[in-house]
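ugh ok fine here u go
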Amino acid sequence: MKTVDEKRKATLIGVIAVVLWALLALFTTELACIPPFQLVSLCFAVASIFSALWITLRGGSVVRALRQPLGAWVLGVGGLFGYHFFYFVALANAPAVEASLIAYLWPLLIVLFSALLPGERLRWQHLAGVALGLFGAVLLVSKGQGLSFNPAFALGYGAAVICSLLWSGYSVLNRRYRNVPVGAVCGFCAGASLLGFVTHGLLETWVTPDTIQWLAILGLGLGPVGAAFFVWDHGTKHGDIQILGVAAYGAPLLSTCLLIAFGKALATPAIIVGCILIVGGAVLASANFLSGKRGRSLSSE
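structure:
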């Protein structure tokens, strides 16, 4: 039985992942020449090494943290690596804007799939909030230039759909393994890193990063491709998954704001409207959450 305050705290911890993911675009602007699977494997390697050190320094046992059910391993490694694998396949076989938007249906799918979880209720404000967030994301990603879906890119679009299904499915099914400690994500990152190296070896040619790029890889591995997955794991297991789904549309908003602040993007009218829609959707969906009026049915599990 979780109290409302415990659930709120877990939700806020999960939202940290959204903030960290917003840094992804800013970091990767320095890493455009690094092959994608090489980058994924290196970042997850950083995440697994530092998380193992974190567990050890806290007096825990890495071996005990990794001793988890096979289903948790399949879900964890499959979710982390599968999302990135199909995302890069989508980008390689379809225009980046359309592929990214299809892949970014996962927050909407999280909200919809969450209705299947025991003790969860899907309310109209969740649907309205996530719809506003989706429209806002469309404006941010497309920069108001419109979309053009060409059947010739069906392979890329299909990969993007699988990408969104994998991450939303992982996030919702993660609740099934709520007793698996967050430290287990250390092993999931290591597994994703290993699969990334294998895929890199089969499909790409190694590019040696320079000093600045190594620092960017370290930053990614510690934040957007590291700590983010640990706090997301905690949030999806113990927090309000519907609020997290809506809040996920804050990632492109914060990312765009950072790019504008660092002079890598312009604040066009379409971007401003997109930001307003995302913020409005998040406030609408989380009104009860923010006011502390969450129902007893959502706090009892």
